[in-house]
Amino acid sequence: MRYLPLALVVLIGILSSCQNPVGNSLSTNFSTNRSVQNWSLWEPLDYFNSSVWQESNWTNGGMFNCGFVPSNISFANSKMTIALTNSPSFGKPYSSGEYRSNNTFTYGKFETNMMPAKASGTDSSFFLYTNNPVWDEIDVEFLGKDTTQVQFNYFVNGVGGHEKIINLGFDASQAYHKYTIEYGNGYINWYVDGVWKWGVNNTGLNAPYGAPMPSHPMQIMANLWPGVGVDSWLGSFNYTGPLFARYDYFLYTPM
Questions:
Q1: pLDDT at residue 61 in the model
Q2: For this structure, is 182 an active site residue?
Q3: Which end of the chain has a smaller Cβ tally under 10 Å, C or N?
Q4: Cα 70 to chain center, whole Å?
Q5: What does the alpha-carbon distance between residue 96 and residue 123 come to, in Å, rounded to a whole number?
Q6: Active-site hit among 43, 98, 111, 137
Q7: Across 157-173, average pLDDT
Q8: 233-250: per-residue pLDDT in tens?
Q9: Which of 43, 111, 141, 182 is catalytic?
Q10: Which helix (H) or strand (E) covers residue 110, if one does?
Q11: Do 209 and 202 contact (CB within 8 A), yes or no?
């Protein structure tokens, strides 16, 4: 998901999960001193494990028309739910949630079993992100205006514009499905329910030969948010009641 630059003094770029052609806003909300984890992670999302994860408490501003607050993340029946509500927070008219790992992770496979929100003007995401030493990001995003599709994207040193829309053949908002990012040295592959759907690499697969690829350890992240000023991408947002993005687990397997 992405964030738009807000001022020249803001030097650290963020997200999210990660996505549109505009670019993510910059923020100092992310520490540049994170441990790099090169061993596997299995997170069943039974509860909030603060030794491994953070519940965000901030707003990214720009196109993100909500604050991210811990109270909008809940756990029940071995599932995590992110709720988008019309409770104002951080000067925004809506509140939602953002979940992110404490550590960053090296090359490997990153997987979730999730069910996005279905509503025009929203983005439900699962993505990888770092701002240290540069902004790299790899995204799985669901634009709520059409949840029969998924959008893949990536950023290298803050440069995105690699969006790829994939038709799923099902409505992702109606049932849990597995979404996997395979992040390697010079390549990225995306899978849905274990089936390869799209890939890029620096030897010419869906990218020019020698094209730069993400190359740094990244945090695992997930969020749900309503957009403002990006109707051409997300569609217009009209709040009619709480919306939910649901996650069953997170899995990291190093390569």
A1: 87
A2: no
A3: C
A4: 17
A5: 11
A6: 137
A7: 97
A8: 999 999 999 999 999 999
A9: 141
A10: strand 108-115
A11: yes
